[in-house]
Amino acid sequence: MKVCLIMAGDEEGGLEKHLVELSNCIVKQVDELTVIAHEKYRQRFLPNIRFIPLDLSRSRRNPLLLCQLAWILRNEVPDIIHAQANKAVDILNRIKHFVPGIRIGTLHSKKKKVAMFSGMHTVIGVSKGVVSELQHPDKRVVYNGILPCYGRHYSRIELADKFSLTPTLPITLSVGRLVPVKAFDNLINAWQPEFGQLLIVGDGLEKNRLAQLIQKRGLDNYVILTGFCSDVQEMMSAVDLLVVPSHREGFSYVVAEALLSRLPVLSTRVPVANEILLEQFLVNVDSVAELASALHRVLTNLPETQQQQTVLFDWAANALTVENMAKKTVEIYNDLLKQSKP
């Protein structure tokens, strides 16, 4: 089986992480693997992956770009062409009549414009939620996987020292870019001093506004904006709860990281949390009162919360790994190839 993975853009985030980790794992399970992406990512792939640099950050209507990609694919002659996210899928859709192979598109988040996926033979969603409204005859779901945390985990005392916390009080973690869709303003408005301490990890355009909200509510000693931290998984061993207050998500990597760290999760009803968490750990999107009530209930019963999510931790240890993500993806490849044979 010869597989070609395509990614457009030149950014840093969950999409790029997904492609690199998926590629480096499935290369062991297919005959040949080629990745077409921006030159900046070349060194992140294993040596036995054929990497073809192509700047797909240009306009998806660029005639030269479309001709270059079509020429590459016609020369590679892959059995499977797997495009990651909307732009790569759109580009592939524009040249579909000129290239060989079974076309697969992965949808990473809910988008209003998804017509390009109709040109794919199969669509893979990173959660049930992202493909729930997509009209397509062959929709599959493969949850993103997480690599094990190889860093040294923080102790409670070390984390408290790092952020000037009181280790005997509850410590809650929330992670993400400081942008409106993550709804950290709702979390701050829901927070009460009796809940203990809240670390909001991330950076973004809303930093100043959120800092002003914390000060306005008199929560300076209880809510800390840490800025960007590269060691979030290492921090999870030293906290009591992860909270996801977002308006929407495609697949929340931080939820997967928490469950693999056996850290309880409380979330709004966004993918992937709304598909795997027990009902008592889900709150409606944009309801500050409901979030405050749930935080009070969970943080005053942390041992019970830990026990209630134990089964979920055990499930995540198998289901939310890179190995399982790769295995499920290759199973789809094999199934499509089997169906395509006369």
Quick take:
This protein is an alpha/beta fold and 342 residues long. The chain has helices spanning 14-26, 63-76, 85-94, 128-131, 156-163, 184-190, 207-216, 232-235, 253-260, 273-276, 288-299, 302-308, 310-319, 322-340, and strands spanning 2-7, 32-37, 50-53, 80-84, 102-107, 122-125, 139-141, 171-175, 197-201, 223-227, 241-244, 265-268, 282-283.
Question: If you had to describe this structure to a student in words, what would you say it looks like?
Answer:
The strands form 2 sheets. Strands 3-2-1-4-5-6-7 form a 7-stranded parallel β-sheet. The chain is an alpha/beta fold and 342 residues long. It starts with a strand and ends with a helix. Helix 1 packs across helix 14 and helix 6 crosses helix 11. It has 14 helices and 13 strands. The protein has 2 domains: 164 residues, Glycogen Phosphorylase B (Rossmann fold, 3-Layer(aba) Sandwich); 164 residues, Rossmann fold. 38% of the residues lie in helices and 17% in strands.
Task: Looking at this protein, list some descriptive labels.
38% helix; six-stranded parallel sheet; alpha/beta; 13 strands; 342 residues; Rossmann fold
Q: What is the overall pLDDT average?
A: 94
Q: What CATH architecture label of the largest domain applies?
A: 3-Layer(aba) Sandwich
In angstroms, what separates the terminal alpha carbons? 17 Å
- Beta fraction of the residues? 15-25%
Strand order in the sheet with the most strands = 3-2-1-4-5-6-7
- The low-confidence runs, each spanning 5 or more residues with pLDDT under 50, are none
* DSSP strand tally: 13
Reported by name, the CATH topology of the largest domain is: Rossmann fold
Estimate the helix proportion, in percent: 25-40%
Secondary-structure element pattern, one letter each: EHEEHEHEEHEHEHEHEHEHEHEHHHH
Molecular shape:
elongated
Question: Largest sheet, if any?
Answer: 7 strands, parallel
According to CATH, what is the class of the largest domain? Answer: Alpha Beta
The CATH superfamily title of the largest domain: Glycogen Phosphorylase B
Number of domains: 2
CA radius of gyration: 22 Å
Structural class: alpha/beta
How many H/I helical runs?
14
